[in-house]
Design goal:
By secondary structure, this protein is an alpha+beta fold. It is built from 8 helices and 5 strands, in the order H-H-H-H-H-H-E-E-E-H-E-E-H.
Length: 209
């Protein structure tokens, strides 16, 4: 399976927004985006670059979403095709499909420090959905699904160490029981639950060409 192995902070600088690829570090003063001299796009002459064409603006929006959710181009095209066939706004449907990925839900439940860590945890078989082990980060959760941790001391110890005694709150469409190390999808996510600042209409315009 292909994966990006380069410096992830470079991706945040390129998209000029925090992609939350390093978990707690992204929320601290150590994040390069918090430093004025490193918050600019990477490259030798970033300060000399112009505004950019309409195509570049739309490309940056698409790349921002892809890197935020950790999907590749082929996967992104599949999500867009599904969103196009569904009823309602295509852009909102695309973001909702990405938000329902299992790795994103595990991270939103604060069971892991970051989305890449959630992906690795799922691939290693530590996460269950409705009592069954699921090792695909792209698994799409549905309303009523229960996301838990496998009945293994190694698995539960890892999750328990990260959660701690005072885990952060979860969004309205999720519920979490810290004592049981599990969460529930109470409803499907809406546009208001998407945390990354993005103009999805620009993505639709680009992918529809």
């Amino acid at each position: 399976m292909a994966r990006y192995t380069g410096p992830v902070c470079r991706l945040c600088r390129r998209e000029t927004v925090k992609l939350m690829l390093k978990g707690i570090r992204c929320e601290s003063a150590k994040c390069p985006m918090e430093r004025q001299w490193r918050s600019s796009p990477p490259g030798m002459h970033a300060w000399r670059r112009g505004k950019g064409s309409n195509y570049l603006v739309r490309l940056r929006e698409k790349q921002k979403v892809k890197r935020y959710y950790g999907v590749w181009e082929k996967q992104f095209k599949r999500y867009f095709e599904v969103a196009t066939r569904s009823h309602g706004n295509t852009g909102e449907g695309l973001l909702q499909l990405l938000e329902r990925r299992l790795d994103n839900v595990v991270w939103k439940l604060a069971l892991t420090p970051s989305r890449p860590t959630a992906r690795q945890t799922i691939v290693h078989g530590h996460i269950t959905v409705n009592g069954r082990k699921v090792d695909k980060p792209s698994f799409r959760v549905s309303q009523g699904d229960v996301i838990g941790v496998r009945e293994s001391e190694k698995s539960r110890k890892f999750i328990r160490e990260h959660l701690g005694e005072s885990p952060p709150p979860v969004q309205e469409w999720l519920e979490r029981e810290v004592s049981k190390l599990e969460g529930r999808v109470t409803s499907l996510p809406t546009r208001e639950h998407i945390q990354i600042p993005v103009e999805e209409q620009l993505i639709v315009e680009m992918c529809s060409r």
